């Protein structure tokens, strides 16, 4: 049957289209190269946008079609081919894309809400600001996709393949992720999240990334302390002085990421540091921070310092038993330059 005949049946509406599909189960309709906004939709109003409800578009040839600015509700696209198609700014609600082939299609700014992408292939699709909220991506292939500001809120992402993806500023609120596969040459690494997949793939496949991490861990110095106005001034001076020795000082005086508590973030920073400077003057949160760092990082020198007019808090004595906790240094604001020189000497010696 010529493509024009398929289009004629389509224009009769969902009821007639679906009836014809039921009567001709062996026919795979060919709507390729069609524009669903103009070719398949007649309207007397110039700016009227089409809304398609309940159409059976399974096993169709939809290659190179344009669905721009069209609305699809409760439509079945399963096992259809969408290669090189344009779905930008389309809106699909409660639609079935299971086992559909959407490779090399444009889906930026499209909305796929509560849709099923089980077994679908979206390789090489560009998905900037695309909305997959509430959808199901199970055993879906996402290889080489561009995911920028993509909305995966309340989405299930499980057993998907993500080799070569670019993922930036994703919305993953309420997203359930598991078993994310990084595949290359039929080998796979499994990680729990999309964001981690991108990082691990870079780490595994790029010696330059490993060199960067080695550089970071040889330069970063973590500075801990209390951040009241008077104490923060001291820590800033230490930071500025440490920089003159070629180190990269990090003062933890910012809020932790939304999905992690402060202690977890400090542990992450400690794992990247060459040594830690811990100002135990007027302690507040530092006892808890050190209790999570010192016992678990035996190769990380910890240099405690304290303002000369103060005494260490009671429980600190316990930490002094660890060989990698160096002898504490007392200081006054006037001799910080000399103290930093001593800190660097102590920590370099301890590392060697």
From TrEMBL:
Gene3D superfamilies: E3 ubiquitin-protein ligase SopA (2.160.20.80). This is Pentapeptide repeat. It comes from Desulfoluna butyratoxydans.
């Amino acid at each position: 049957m010529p493509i024009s005949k398929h289009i004629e049946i389509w224009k009769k509406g969902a009821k007639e289209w679906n009836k014809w599909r039921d009567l001709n189960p062996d026919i795979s309709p060919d709507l390729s190269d069609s524009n669903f906004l103009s070719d398949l939709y007649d309207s007397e109003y110039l700016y009227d946008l089409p809304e398609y409800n309940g159409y059976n578009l399974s096993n169709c040839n939809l290659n190179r079609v344009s669905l721009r600015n069209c609305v699809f509700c409760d439509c079945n696209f399963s096992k259809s081919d969408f290669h090189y198609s344009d779905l930008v700014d389309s809106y699909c609600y409660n639609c079935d894309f299971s086992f559909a082939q959407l490779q090399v299609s444009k889906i930026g700014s499209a909305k796929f809400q509560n849709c099923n992408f089980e077994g679908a292939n979206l390789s090489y699709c560009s998905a900037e600001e695309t909305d997959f909220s509430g959808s199901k991506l199970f055993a879906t292939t996402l290889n080489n996709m561009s995911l920028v500001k993509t909305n995966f809120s309340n989405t299930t992402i499980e057993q998907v393949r993500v080799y070569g993806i670019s993922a930036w500023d994703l919305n993953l609120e309420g997203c359930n992720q598991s078993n994310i596969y990084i595949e290359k040459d039929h080998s796979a690494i499994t990680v729990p999240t999309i964001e981690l997949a991108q990082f691990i793939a870079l780490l595994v496949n790029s010696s330059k990334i490993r060199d960067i991490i080695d550089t970071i861990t040889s330069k970063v110095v973590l500075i801990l302390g209390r951040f009241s106005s008077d104490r923060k001034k001291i820590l800033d001076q230490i930071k500025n002085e440490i920089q003159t020795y070629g180190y990269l000082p990090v003062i933890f005086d910012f809020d932790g990421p939304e999905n992690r508590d402060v202690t977890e973030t400090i542990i992450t920073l400690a794992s990247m540091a060459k040594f830690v400077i811990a100002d135990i003057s007027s302690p507040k949160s530092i006892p808890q921070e050190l209790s999570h760092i010192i016992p678990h990082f035996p190769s990380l020198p910890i240099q405690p310092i304290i303002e000369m007019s103060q005494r260490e808090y009671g429980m600190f004595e316990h930490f002094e038993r660890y060989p990698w906790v160096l002898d504490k240094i007392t200081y006054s604001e006037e001799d910080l330059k000399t103290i930093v020189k001593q800190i660097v000497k102590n920590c370099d010696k301890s590392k060697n």
